[in-house]
Amino acid sequence: MNHKSIEDKLAVNKYDLDEEVHIRLKDEICKECEHRPCVSVCPADCFKLKEDKLSFAYEGCLECGSCRIVCPGNAVDWALPRGGLGICYQYG
User: Fold this and answer.
1) Does a structural domain hold residue 1?
2) How many domains does the chain have?
3) 3-state DSSP helix/strand/coil percent for the chain, to nearest 5?
4) How many CB atoms lie within 10 A of CB 87?
5) What are 33-75's pLDDT values in tens digits?
6) Which of 28, 48, 57, 81, by CA, is between 20 and 30 Å from 37?
7) The domain spanning residue 66 has which CATH number?
8) Could you give the CA distance from residue 58 to residue 47 in angstroms, rounded to a whole number?
9) What Å distances lie between residue 90 and 3, 13, 20, 72, 87, CA to CA?
10) What is the CA radius of gyration of the chain?
């Protein structure tokens, strides 16, 4: 049986990116967050810690909403991209 890695599966996803950002972080709340569960829960690895500073890139977002759900400070303003834009799952 051929088992593909998560990275292999993510690599075939097609995106029609919306230039309007659909996820925004409330930086003042994120700076105070100790655990930063968004970093570990995001399946697309959109959240990264660099020198203890949180960065986010919406371009690879799978639109699952996990970051919004696990955020203890309600610091993720999350919405779907505008109609027809974002990830196209038919290839993944």
Assistant:
1) no
2) 1
3) 30, 20, 50
4) 20
5) 999 999 999 999 999 998 888 999 999 899 999 999 999 999 9
6) 81
7) 3.30.70.20
8) 9
9) 19, 8, 23, 33, 9
10) 14
